[in-house]
Amino acid sequence: MKKSDSLKNGPLIFVFRLPPRPSGDELMNAWSILSDKEKTRATQFKRETDKNRFIFSRVFLRKILSRFVKGLPAGLVFGNNKYGRPFLIKPRQNNFDFNLSHSGEWAAVAINAGQVGIDIEKIAPTDQLVAQNYFSAEELDYLRWSKKRKPEAFYEIWTLKESLVKAMGQGLSRSLKQFSFKIIGKQIIFKNNGRTVSSWNFTSRRLAKNYQLAVCWKGSRLQNKDLKVAMLTKL
Ligand SMILES: CC(C)(COP(=O)(O)OP(=O)(O)OC[C@H]1O[C@@H](n2cnc3c(N)ncnc32)[C@H](O)[C@@H]1OP(=O)(O)O)[C@@H](O)C(=O)NCCC(=O)NCCS
Fold it and tell me: What is d(CA 128, CA 116) in angstroms, rounded to the nearest whole number?
C-alpha cells in the first residue's frame, strides 16, 4: 500500500476517465485482467461503448483494489450480495469497504475503513416525474427554490441518495423517499423518516463540467476540502 493510500483520515476517492476509443492493445490488456464472469457480462452489452465502459471500469476497480490487498488485479475474486453489491472473496479481507460507480465517460471508486457508497452521474435534463416519485417534500422544495439549474440541483440530491443506498448495499431496493437531504451551502443534513441522522457522512462535488459525484461513508468526519480525490490518467 502506498503511503498516500492510508485510510486513517477517511475515504479515498479515485476517478478515471474511461478511454473513448480504446486501441486494440488497450482492449486486449484490459480483457486479460477480467474474470470469466466479467467477460460474460461484457459480451452481453449491445452497444460497443457500454461494453468498453464496463470493461475499463472493472479493470480500474481491480487496479485500485490491488493497491490495498496482496494480489494482482487479475487474481482478485469477487462475490456479490443478494442486491448485486460486489465484495472481495479472494483475498478475503475485513479492513476496508469499497464501491464503484460509472456514468458516461467517468468511473469512480471509493475505499474506506468503514462502509462506503459512491455515485457519479452525468448531469442531463431531468424528468419532473422522477423527482416527484423519489424525492421528499423538502427535496422538491430545494429543486423549486435553489438558484442552481434544475438538473444540477436534481443530480446533487439524486447522487446523495444513491451513494447512501449503495453504502447500505441494498441499491434501489430501498425506498428513496424515506431519506431526505437538505443542502445548505456546503452542509449536507440527512434525515431518515423525518429524523436527523448523523452516523453517516456525505460529500457532494462536481467532477469535470457536467458530472456530479457524491460519497457516503461511516467513520472519520471530514471537511469537504479534506476529502482526497485522486485522478488517474492511465491504468
Ligand atoms: C446498485 C445500483 C444502485 C446501481 O446504480 P447505477 O447508478 O445504475 O450504477 P453505478 O454505476 O452507480 O453503480 C454500479 C456499480 O455499483 C456496484 N453495485 C452493484 N450493486 C450494488 C448494490 N446493491 N449496492 C452497492 N453497489 C452496488 C457494482 O460495482 C456496479 O458496477 P458494475 O455493475 O460495473 O460492477 C442499482 O443498480 C441497484 O439498485 N441495483 C440493485 C438491484 C437489485 O436489487 N438486484 C438484485 C438482483 S442482483
Answer: 29
What radius of gyration, in Å, describes the C-alpha atoms of the chain? 18
Give 88's strand partners.
78
- Averaged pLDDT, 136-151: 92
pLDDT at 207: 93
Instruction: Evaluate: CB of 104 within 6 angstroms of ligand 1.
Output: no
pLDDT band at 1 (very low <50, low <70, confident <90, very high): low
How far apart, in Å, are the Cα atoms of 218 and each of 81, 105, 139, 214, 235? 19, 28, 23, 14, 28
The percent of residues above 70 in pLDDT, for the chain, comes to: 96
Q: Where are the domains of the chain?
A: 3-232
Q: Which of 172, 173, 174, 215 gets mutated to test ligand 1 (max ligand atoms within 8 A of its CB)?
A: 172
Nearest residue to 18 via CA among 121, 99, 101, 107: 107
3-class DSSP state of 95? coil
pLDDT tens digits for range 9-41: 889 999 999 998 999 999 999 999 999 999 999
Closest CA to 62 of 52, 49, 51, 77: 77
pTM exceeding the 0.90 threshold for the entire prediction? yes
Q: Write down the CATH superfamily of domain 3-232.
A: 4'-phosphopantetheinyl transferase domain (3.90.470.20)
